[in-house]
Amino acid sequence: MSNESVDVRGWPGLWLAGDHLRLGLVPQLGGRICSAQHDGEELLFVDERLSGVLPDIRLPNDDKSALADLKTALGFQLWGGNKLWVAPEAAWIAGTPPLDLDAGCYGAVTDGQSVTMISPVCRETGVRLTRRVELTHDDCVVIDQRMENCGEKDVAWGMWDVTQWLRPFDVYVAARRDRLRPYELGDSARLFDRVVQEANNWTRVVCDDSVEFKFGGIAERGRMIAVRAAELGALVVDVEFPNNSSGEYAHDSSVEVYNSSKYPYLELETHRQREVIPPGGSVEFREQWHISRVGGPFGPEALPPLVDA
Length: 309
Prior knowledge:
Elements: E1 2-4, E2 7-8, E3 11-12, E4 14-17, E5 21-26, E6 32-38, E7 41-42, H1 67-74, E8 82-87, H2 99-102, E9 107-111, E10 114-118, E11 127-135, E12 140-149, E13 158-166, E14 169-173, E15 180-182, H3 188-195, E16 196-199, E17 202-207, E18 213-217, E19 223-228, E20 235-240, E21 255-259, E22 265-271, E23 282-293
Antiparallel strand pairs: 1-4, 2-3, 4-5, 5-6, 6-7, 8-13, 9-10, 10-11, 11-12, 12-23, 13-22, 14-17, 14-19, 15-18, 16-17, 18-21, 19-20, 20-23, 21-22
């Protein structure tokens, strides 16, 4: 295994390399993972038109009252990859992610097969995010994330991890079908019966077409498994995260699946439950990816039980 400091899809970044998996991190663009290559195959979406762009998010004279105007002028930039947002989305100024968290320059410290990326204190939310990304000896991706309240008042944001994966995938959510609901977005309501299917007590969401939908709900376990059929055997992306089926979540969802009509990606979105964080307080959220290729097809019969025996 080796670390490199080189170009990552047009941006200055860092590589973590394992036996089958390579991760490209871009600390200067919101602490993102912009590349995940399994045996040379790129799995993450980025908008190539923005490749290499690092936005200027400075404010004249550090005037925070101009933040909304700056965000409106920049618009919603679809950088792609994996990032950590804060929820609820409805509380974002100007309807776009907080700039310092989404596109700010994170500090970075490397330590063997891990990189720790630390955000500036967010001018909009008052929080600071820390993301430690490790590629283990068996090619497991461990993302340890921390949100600290650096302000003088209580905050009640939830941590919201979003990853844009290149289609196609069938996404298996560790929840029964009646726990998921369509959002008021795109064709979600119309497509629900077609693409959301029961699968051995899990729920399969078929993401193989250029249609827009988003579904979410409270999972029964903190797990989503995305599967792509291929001649060499199914590609399996197994995502694990803490889940509290009775917790309070910012979107009333601990898991969300989004499919884009404009771009060739889907999103796997995981949430940490929302709670009040006092000044100086912090919360943590760990997500793990296990990416592998199995020797044959992968169907519902291969899914683990929702409840351990």
